[in-house]
Amino acid sequence: MSSNSTQPGMQPLPLLIFSSRWLQLPLYLGLIVAQGVYVVLFVKELWHLIVGAVNFGEQEIMLIVLGLIDVVMISNLLVMVIVGGYETFVSRLRLEDHPDQPEWLSHVNASVLKVKLAMAIIGISSIHLLKTFIASGALEGLPFCTPEDFMLIKDTSVAAPRCNTLTPTGVMWQTIIHCVFILSAIGIAVTDRLMNGGTARKAAAH
Q1: Residue 7 counted as domain residue
Q2: What is the pTM of this model?
């Protein structure tokens, strides 16, 4: 009998474990649906900007535009998770010869995807923080809302009081969280660089 006979198939338990990766498929399909929801939100905000462009002030327009950029960046994050995650953890997309293959997909792995996701989250956090700073400047001169004012704002049956819903503590914590995101991304990038450097040195030694 030839020594080059066909290798036997995987055993049932390893096959079951390996096939369990397809359980992630509904999750990625759900993210595609979420992408569609963000498209609807973008069109809604864009229409709101077009309709009110004549009456809006510069800061109001800037806040809406930042909101549109925020939606686009979150949508980019979704694409990165859907395409990169499926390629890395579920199955190959086989886009090597496709003219529209994303540049980053050719060398994507779990470490690269993790760094790119961290950078995308920092970008989204930056937009939110910038919106907060602009809104706090636009609301300058208004008193801060009291707990009673917040209850009235939630009650749609009465006129909402004119007060600043932003608080110095809230802005401070948003800034701290943004800084934590930056430090986390730096830590992930440094760890990834150290791990890849060690792997490269071992390969060179052999």
Answers
A1: no
A2: 0.69
